Amino acid sequence: MMPTEIWLIFIISICIVGSIVALELKDILSSIIAVGVVGLGIAVSFLILQAPDLAVVQFVFEIFAVIILVRAFLKKDYHKEEPSTINKVLVGVTLITLGAIFYLSLSVFKLLPPFGQPLFETAQYYVQNGATDTGAANLVSAIILDYRAYDTLGEVTVLFAAILGTLTILRIKKSKNSQEVTNEK
Amino acid sequence: MIVYILCFVLFLVGLYGVLTKRDLVKIILSVGIMGYAANLFLILFAYKSDSFYPILTEGKENLSRVDPLPQALVLTSIVIELGTTALLVALAIKLYQKYKTFDITKIRRLSG
Amino acid sequence: MKNNQGMSIIVKTVTRVSVWLMVLYAWYIILHGHLTPGGGFGGGVIFAIAMLNVLLAYGSEFTEKWLKIRLLHDIEAASILLFLIVGILGISVLGGFLTNFILKGKLYELISAGTIPIFNILIGIKVAMSLFLAVLILAKTNIENGGEV
């Protein structure tokens, strides 16, 4: 086994533990921070997997997501997970089903190529001709903004739509109503 | 192969959260975890041993590089994930203002 | 309502200095997107975090006056339009949508790679403005009351 693989096993195990902790804690602030740990672990594993571009973006996005979630859900009184009304049977059935899925899919992973020997061959064209075709040293940015710029246009449109949806949902008659509330008090 | 399996376990943990949790904030966090696992799996699948990052540096043009294409795909996917998270947060806040609870079973009962 | 007043004077003074350093770093990341890791997405988020710093330190009322929210909305919409216009210019010059039609220049130089730095700048502005506006509207929303139609 290569040292890269050992490091990855270590970091992904931390991520799994972090996500279980995040889901099982009753306290919402702790859950959000635990998910932040998972995201930063993913950023470190991107760095180990030779993707510094993704590591930078994942790192700043994780910080931003944690700020959004904390700002949104912790306003005045401290929010705790409400005592669950779910019965234990449903949790048991879900766990057994997920375990069965995991056990049955183990044989699929044997069919995959071993770690570190990918099947993709199109990369060779980009690596060899990317710099001369586009003039950019960063091949990832050459792909997203030149070879596949149409993809990026669609992505920007999706982001625009998502943010527009956020603004629309939260803005409905908000200013008027809050003024009335303050006047009544 | 162990790395792939661990990544799949991370995905299943997120799926477990979506299926069993009744708190809206927990569900949003679980969806985020599933997104992380999917992104990580694409990058794991593209890793080539003894290769370097796909960013050329002066004088070292001929080194072996990892595949830049999945990295470009994941880069856009991360951004969209954040936009979706913001949208989900807005919906959750709106539901809370209407029903004064984050529990989805109670929300269903109140809608009548 | 108390949250809208912002934090103490120490935080405000430190913020006033450090915001410009963060904006400078964000522009460094955006402009070197075709040479080093980063680019429009990462730099745009750092830009948004810099503006978010102002929001957290000074409160939403001051921020809305200082940053001219209408202008930010216009910039956000204009950046996506400029992206399309640059793409359509590619049709008229080289015959393909979003083609790299400007001279490539020399590898490893700041001004090179044709339209890639332009797209990086536009995407950086777009990401920064849209994320900041989303956080601003989340910060202004009172989760307890208000907003009920």
Overall description:
The complex is a heterotrimer of chains A (185), B (112) and C (149). With 185 residues, chain A is mainly alpha-helical. Chain A has two domains: 1-85; 138-185. Chain A has helices spanning 3-24, 28-48, 52-73, 88-111, 123-134, 139-147, 149-171, 174-184. In chain A, helix 1 packs antiparallel against helix 2 (28-48) and helix 5 (123-134) crosses helix 6. The termini of chain A are far apart. The model of chain A has no long low-confidence stretch (mean pLDDT 80). Chain B has 112 residues and is mostly helical. Chain B has a single domain, classed as Helix Hairpins. Helix content of chain B is 73%, strand content 0%. Chain B has four helices and no strands. The longest helix of chain B is centred in the last third of the chain and has 32 residues, at 68-99. The N and C termini of chain B lie far apart (49 Å). Helix content of chain C is 68%, strand content 0%. Chain C is elongated, with a radius of gyration of 19 Å. In chain C, helix 2 packs across helix 3 (60-67), helix 2 runs parallel beside helix 5 (116-140) and helix 4 packs antiparallel against helix 5 (116-140). Chain C contains five helices and no strands. Chain C has one domain (2-140). Chain C is mainly alpha-helical. Chains in contact: A-B, A-C, B-C. Chains A and B meet through helix 1, helix 2, helix 3, helix 4 and helix 5 of A and helix 1, helix 2 and helix 3 of B.
